[in-house]
Amino acid sequence: MIRVLTYKEIDRGEWSRLVQTSATGTWFQTPEAFEFFESMPELFAPYAIGVVSKPKSDLGLNNEETLRGVCVGYVTVERNPIKQYFTRRAIVIGGPALADDATDEEVTALLEAVKTKTRHLQSLNSALHETTHQSACMQAFKQPEDLSPIAVEQQYASQKHAALTKNTKNIFYCYEPIYIETRNFNDYSRWKGTFEKAGFEYKRHLNFHVDCTDKEKMWERLSETRRRQIRKVTNEGVSELRNEGVSEQDVREWYEILSELYRTKVKTPLWPVEFFLEFYRQKRGVYLLQKHNGKVIGGIMCPIFENRCIYEWYICGMDAEYKESHPSVMATWAAMEYANTHGIARFDVMGAGEPDVPYGVRDFKAEFGGQLVEHGRFVCVRKPILYKIGTLAVKMMKG
After folding, report:
1. Cα separation of 314 and 331, whole Å?
2. CB 309 within 8 A of CB 300
3. What does the alpha-carbon distance between residue 73 and residue 272 come to, in Å, rounded to a whole number?
């Protein structure tokens, strides 16, 4: 028997155990990742869905339920209702965490639950009943009999503001996502047919996994160009900040470099600075930043998944301004060194584009000696016309 659970129903210990032991487990499917997304309701409507199974033993007796799969994702949030209408999407970073022997039935149940729950967003993790600004204000305001007219007006204004603020945060609950996308960091090939039967089309997408267990071999796998650059910069003594030495101001300076990169080259939306500050404040991973004469010139933001993996979530560097310091190269190497020093097996660059499509970022990442893998993405399109419009808009943005 298979049963679907929402966030509050999933046993946290079982959740952590499944993600840690699953071959498809990533930091992005942990309770900690869900809590990180949940802490920013102005940006994310997160969801966590699990499936438990109660199999029968050979004697026909029911065993205890066990957690067989978890899917942590989020629906993107925009304060502007028009922008939200055209850009809403449900993203599952890394792909769901599945028991290594999860059955097709269990995976199907999880995927169907994700489709259902994201269609009816009010049923995700907690019920929200406000449907309009007017009804929110009406429900929030009750006029006490013993207040003067001026006091009543002041209280009404205060309660109206509180109700509208709460309602504005939850505007996204009005809309079903245009599509659901799992961005896989591990191998889901055994369940590929199950995903497709559930309405998730496979999209080819590449990635690099860098083995960080042996520093000597890690160094040897670098291209000669990267080795030469790293040796040169290391000898020059460009200072490096580990997480314990990074300040909020350092993060803000690094974000300015990142936002300029996204504005001029990446040309896709970037989270506001609060997202990156919350990652720092909540200690969800590490910032590895480079400074030159006291100025932040580049760095990388990395979640860490136990001793299994460190992720290149965001990276940037002032490569044009500080050509001899190679900040993007040093940021990448810093993450690899950090992994090796702290007993973390793998460095995941979190994507290298589509195969057979020229991509300069993939060429850059290829020089760090990682294994090129294709774990792809699964996409379930719910609003085909809006999906096509959005795809075209992204292509236009990138020129």
Report:
1. 10
2. no
3. 19
The per-residue pLDDT for 82 is 78
R_g of the chain computed on alpha carbons: 23
> What is the pTM (predicted TM-score) of this model?
0.86
Residues contacting 336, CB < 8 A, separation 6+: 210, 212, 218, 347, 368
CB 359 within 8 A of CB 353: yes
Q: Taking a C-beta distance cutoff of 8 angstroms, is the pair 254, 328 a contact?
A: no
CA distances from 279 to 33, 37, 349 (A): 10, 10, 18
CA–CA dist 135, 152 (Å, integer): 19
Check if the beta carbon of residue 95 is closer than 8 Å to that of residue 186. yes
| Partners of residue 72 on adjacent β-strands | 48
What's CA 123's distance to the chain center, in Å? 22
- Model pLDDT for residues 30-56, shown as the tens digit of each residue: 999 999 999 999 999 999 999 999 865
For residue 309, list its beta bridge partners. Answer: 305, 346
What distance in Å separates the CA atoms of residue 217 and residue 115, rounded to the nearest whole number?
A: 44
